[in-house]
Amino acid sequence: MKGRIIHIDTAKSWRGGQQQAAYLHRGLIQQGMESLMVCPPGSAMEAWCRKNNLPVHPLSLRCEADFLSAFRLTHCIKTGQSALFHAHNAHALMIALIATVFSRKKIPVVASRRVGFPLKLNKIAQWKYRSKKLRRIVCVSHNILRVMQFHGIPENKLAVIPSGIDIHKFDPVGRTPTFRDEWNIPRDYKIVCTIAALTAEKAYPVFLESARLVLREYPTVIFIAVGDGKQAEEIKTLSAKKDLAGHVIFTGFRSDVGIFLKNSDLFVMASKKEGLGTSILDAEAAGLPVIGTDAGGIPEVIRHEVNGIIVPRQNPEALAKAIVTLLKNDDLRKQYGKKSLEVVKGFDIEITIKKHIVLYEEIFKDN
Length: 367
Hints:
Blueprint: E1 4-8, H1 16-30, E2 34-39, H2 44-51, E3 56-58, H3 67-73, E4 83-87, H4 90-102, E5 109-113, H5 123-130, E6 134-139, H6 142-150, E7 158-160, H7 179-182, E8 190-195, H8 204-217, E9 221-226, H9 232-241, E10 248-252, H10 257-262, E11 266-269, H11 278-285, E12 290-293, E13 308-311, H12 316-327, H13 330-343, H14 349-366
Parallel strand pairs: 1-2, 1-4, 2-3, 4-5, 5-6, 6-7, 8-9, 8-11, 9-10, 11-12, 12-13
């Protein structure tokens, strides 16, 4: 395929979407394609690209209506070369579409949609997602596809390419003898882990209430929450009010999530909204049994009663019951954990990259 893929990500922090964009950028280059990441200077994405010696172009990308950045974005297009803008979030999509106006070339746009939120009804949002220059919206789950269809987005404009992970990235990681000492966890306690930003959609109040209920029946357990976010202090305060001190550990943002997964007995995702749930995929790659809600794309990555349990969202009682069931049944946990290693094979990042390449080729051909 001859053409330059110009990725645009406006976030300064690092979450699941940035990891997916980074995987794709690196994977395309490994496949011999020309790929460039455009992101804010000083962002986590810029740091990652430079650390991995991958092409990166810092651009301010201050807001959706950043016309100057949109104009400068056109300078990333080489003379005489085909190019495609891939917007990895909503703000990036607007900037990409504005850039196509400035460009003298016919530049197609692809947008990744990783959240299952309804589309905003304002004119700008409607214009973005219905623009003729937006050739495909890549939905990371069938749930998101259904949301887009509900809002009247034509089916020929939609594609489903699930997020993927490096399914072997935790293979070298094992249980660490000093892990429990570092976090003051008794040897005979089970460990329940969640990896999620401390934000509203991750439903930490439900997670904490389920922890309180579990402790009534199974007191020898520690809950570990890996992540950071805007509601960090509020969530920690709620944990204290529920008298969970000593039983819930907040680690903040960690890049070494494999250490926590490999030393845990069970993974839980309490989200009330979720695009797909790549943290669940990470847990499966670590060989853990998983419990998740029926929110968004979660049921697409957990096979109920095969490698885990799916419970109704916003239901701490059901979540607590599922946790206790697995804590009390060592054989079932091991069985589900082995199945997780099989389930996650369907979400290998190599599959995700290959599907994107096919999509890009189709668009370049049509263009």
